[in-house]
Amino acid sequence: MQCGVCSGSCPSGRHTSLNIRKIIRNAARTTDVIRDEQLWMCTTCYNCQERCPRNIDIVDSVLVIRTIAVREGIMLKEHRKVSELLIEYGHAVPIDNNNRKKRTELGLDEVPETVHKYPDGLEEVKTLLESCGFDELLETVTEN
User: Fold this and answer.
1) How far is it, in rounded angstroms, from Cα 21 to Cα 11?
2) 3-state secondary structure string across the chain
3) Which residues pair with 143 in a beta bridge?
4) Own/partner pairs for 108-115, CB < 8 Å, 24+ apart?
5) How many other C-beta atoms lie within 10 A of the C-beta of residue 34?
6) What's the pLDDT tens digit per position in 39-83?
């Protein structure tokens, strides 16, 4: 059954080349799917998985495929950059004056509940990432 509910539900598919149905279909046919840039366009919103009439674990499958890709040294340069920022700063989103202003306008705290607000937590984040081998895994990655 290829009903297309997953692709039709995908917000990333409206703005990128992502065809989530094609990714899952190709994963059943070939290991080459780990080299497909579309794999990294999924934002893991779970819309497709929640709406799938066959209850296929689509996003969970994407995450497993990504894990295999990373273990094979494959990751988009943008994802590598986010990972590097996470390792270095404990957070991948910059909190500059523009972001502070936007957060305040939205009624949020000026700084989110991250290491931006609790800088002492940065060492704990780094220890956690190191303890699970995230830093070593990233060293094996070449940009796709």
Assistant:
1) 13
2) CCCCHHHHHCCHHHCCCCCHHHHHHHHHHCHHHHHCHHHHCCCCCCHHHHHCCCCCCHHHHHHHHHHHHHHCCEECHHHHHHHHHHHHHCCCCCCCHHHHHHHHHCCCCCCCCCCCCCHHHHHHHHHHHHHCCHHHHHHCCEEC
3) 75
4) 114/90, 115/89, 115/90, 115/91
5) 19
6) 999 989 998 899 988 898 989 999 999 989 998 989 988 888 888
- The pLDDT tens digits for 6-41 are 888 888 888 888 889 889 889 989 889 999 998 999
What is the token pair recorded at 73? Answer: 């040294």
